[in-house]
Design brief:
With 107 residues, the protein is mainly α. The protein contains five helices and no strands.
Length: 107
Amino acid sequence: TICRAVFPRDQEEALWWIRVAKKDLERARYSLEKSDKVASLFWSQQAVEKALRALHIALTGDAPKTYNIKRLCEAVRQFLDLDESVLEKAYELTQYLSLIHISEPTR
């Protein structure tokens, strides 16, 4: 296809992850509009994770071996000048999601 001729495989994969991240962000916004803060937080976390995964693939050509947002930030930080506050926010988002998983009743 034309896309394969223009983009190497790793760029195609990175673009695919960006599209998925955008969908997750749309889900987060929709959930927030419906006052479902837990779902909004979950989909926000998913969007950030997938966007960072895409960035890592675009920068290195390799898929990262983690799903942890803080670790993904640290992995791309070596290529970009990320402010320390970005890592703090990544850690904060991961902690919020962990708290939700802990506090949810088991079914």
